[in-house]
Amino acid sequence: MKYKRCLHCGAVNYYQDEVCRRCEGDIRLDKKRAISTSLAFLLSAIFFYIPANLFPILNTSKFAQTQGSTIIGGVIELWKEGDYPVAIIIFLASVLIPIIKFFVLFYLLYAVYKGSCESGKVKLYHIMEIMGPWSLIDVFVVMVLVGLIHFNSVSVIPGVGATSFALMVLFTILSAKALDPRLIGEECE
């Protein structure tokens, strides 16, 4: 006998059921809708990742001079100043992890589409889901700097890159949530 879990309340239901026995929520597995929604969110995330890296994430005004700093520019500047751990953390969280998430999501979407039975997909999905919000560390750093630095001659303002980056992280999280984890390995049971 095959079973499936309700994503709303966690109750275990018979596979052929379309309504949860506990919360009466919809528990149908809609593979096509899950793939298309997740792919749309993923493509939106990639769309916002480009301006997040091209435009300044932080604008610093000092003595009537405004200077913008991109993510990579900030990492390079931190590295030059000798702040190696911070530079590595920002590089990992803001450059490497989003790219890895894009590839993992594409892989999972392809695996669900093809119905492949490779092991480890569910674990990969959960690892990626846990990693998701950690990419917001850049936005957090920008907000802390904006809140802390208020001098007469210096001001720090979030740039267009910060907004784009926050939207990119939001869309990757939504893409992962739209991909129903019950579909990963459904044909393998």
Structural description of this entry:
The chain is mainly α. The chain has one domain (30-188). It contains 6 helices and 5 strands, in the order ββαββααααβα. It has a 3-stranded antiparallel β-sheet. β3 (58-62) and β4 form a beta hairpin. The radius of gyration is 21 Å and the shape is elongated. The chain starts with a strand and ends in an 11-residue tail after the last helix.
Measured by DSSP, the beta-strand proportion falls in 5-15%
Radius of gyration: 21 Å
Order of helices and strands: EEHEEHHHHEH
Q: Give the N-terminus to C-terminus distance in angstroms.
A: 10 Å
The overall pLDDT, averaged over residues, is 81
Q: What's the number of helices? A: 6
Question: Which characteristics define this entry?
Answer:
single chain; 189 residues; mainly alpha; three-stranded antiparallel beta sheet; elongated
Helices and strands, with pairings:
Elements: E1 3-5, E2 12-14, H1 31-54, E3 58-62, E4 65-69, H2 71-80, H3 84-114, H4 121-131, H5 137-148, E5 154-158, H6 160-178
Antiparallel strand pairs: 1-2, 3-4, 3-5
Helix pairs in contact: 1-3, 1-6, 2-3, 3-4, 3-6
Sum this structure up briefly.
The chain is 57% helix and 11% strand.
